[in-house]
Write a structure and sequence with these properties.
Enoyl-CoA_hyd/isom_CS; 7-stranded mixed sheet; 3-stranded mixed sheet; enoyl-CoA hydratase activity; EC 4.2.1.17
Amino acid sequence: MTQPLPDSQPDSQPDSQLRVDRPSDGVVLLTLDNPGQRNAMSGLMTEAWQRTIADLRADPDVRCVVVTGEGSAFCSGGDPRWIAGEPDAPVHALRTRMLGFYRAWLSVCDLEVPTIAAINGPAVGAGLCLALACDLRYAAASARMSVPFVRLGMHAGMAATHHLPAIVGEAHARDLLLTGRMVGADEAFRMGLVSSVTPDDQFLDSVLETAAGISATAPVASRLTKVALRDGGHADLTSCLEWEALAQPVTLATEDLQEGVRASRERRAPVFQGR
């Protein structure tokens, strides 16, 4: 059973269209809560998301963040009324507006803790882009995914042309972006878009169990590993080794390293403190 954050957290309030829960130690569950629009990214939800991510970035107790959708959908993308709401606006004004939207939602990339997209249903357009911005993606069996921008008469946005090729490769990215077609969970798994597919009735529990396992790892090591893997990892072997030769000694100097060695010797689960 998930436990909500204290009422003092503004984004735990129901009118924010974003629920924030802590189902286990170190794990935060963010639920997009606009089911009437299949969890479309409304202005209210976007503001709540940006505030919440900023709060989580400053919270030392957070070790893993899971994102999912309320009801039968993960996220249907940007609110069409907002996207097409200013047909007479000049291009420079639309550009400024879209950059603000992108940066608000892609702020999840700034978190130094592992993030998981729990794709419980359709993830469409910017909704799929949000999932792509997370470190890991898991899908329920009934989930479907698409980036149908060209079918709507628009160019892809929210880092679709950056994240999609990096995750599924150029061939699959070209297919998905140029056709705008929908893929099911099994096809998404085959192309590497998601890491696993789980029956709907077991899905969220399975993802939260994985998140709890991540939360139980050493926080300093986990954060540094995530930083190392940003944007597809290091550009070359030399820069990789230079980073690792610094980051690994940082972890060797932690109390958690000593705890991990003791726990391995004593054949028990380690209890990491993040120091």
